[in-house]
Amino acid sequence: MSTSLQQPFRAWIAAPACPWVTGGALTVGAVAELIAFPGSVTTTIGVLVSSASLMWRRSFPPLAVLTVAAGLLGFAGDVNLYVSTMASGLIGCYTLGRHRVLHPAVTVAGGALGAVCVNLVHINTWSRMELPVPPLWEKGSLSLFAEAFLLTVVIFGAVMMGDAVRSREETRNERNLAQAQLIAMERQQAAEAERAAIARELHDIVSHSVSMIAVQAESATYTTPGLTTEARDGFQQIACTARSSMAELRRLLGVLRTPHGQGDMAVTAPQPTLDHLAELVEQHRAVGGAAELRVTGERVSLPAAWELSAYRITQEALTNARKHAPGARTVVEIGYGTDRLLTLRIHDDGPGPGSGPGSGAGHGLTGMRERAALVGGRLSAGAGPDGGFLVEAELPWGTG
User: Which of 28, 162, 191, 154 is nearest to 97 (CA)?
Assistant: First the structure.
């Protein structure tokens, strides 16, 4: 069966109405067969019960035992096998294996025993009909049980098919669960790594600012004329407090400055700001990407954390554009609002979300959202109104 037909077929099988429709159709077919070819009372009851009980096979799978038993009973009451009985029996055996009402070996053994009993009833019927039936102890009498053998093979095949489907679905569910857990773990690790990177950068920023406070407070005691003793002591106390805060910052956050196992060998670089966006766009063009930078509003000098967060968000958005939409044209829009709101809008004209390999994993998006949340902002990412992928962020840096 082709893939285009498999999906609608599976959807129909999984639909709640499927058991009722198939059970009802088989029951109607059984009634039509009984009218065309009347059977004994036992056969009539067996055929109708076997078909009608299928309507509850999903809500109460153990009822499939009755389906199979009634089908065998209906076949035992008449040497003719009705088509509806054959279909309901196969579906009943499949249901027993699919839901593992009993162990497959027990189900097949029970079905084989029922087939032998039906075969013995038919042998007795053939004898009463004066057909040539050799005694069971004579040569060639085993051929009388070909019917039982054939029924057992059919029951075995239907039960094993149902059990195979059940095993495959369990394996698929376990795989999906494991994949979901892996994705959740990767996202958590990505968030933790991004927080660690933010902490390292904040450590550099805050350490620089606090050290400047210490230096300026200490130098003020020598460069400011006419200071009273109290004022001089106050400046010295500010410098002492700043140095103490520096030591505490190094103690708490210094371990995050380098990757694990590299000690103090890492080389730190000045943190980028929004003034470096033009260089970032040029780097994007240098590796084959088409990009344009648009700036609206008057350039405002923002706090270091805001500048760094905006730069990193833009950097990650351009990286995603190169990764998932190579060759697409990207527009980077930076807006300095008069209401102390920095807006970022990075849009490409690529195929949009979910198109590239690994798209939708969310690791880069997780980092960008962490960046925006760090400064009290918000970020959204997804399909653009005119196609492509759109990243929008709003980073407020104060109140009016």
Answer: 162
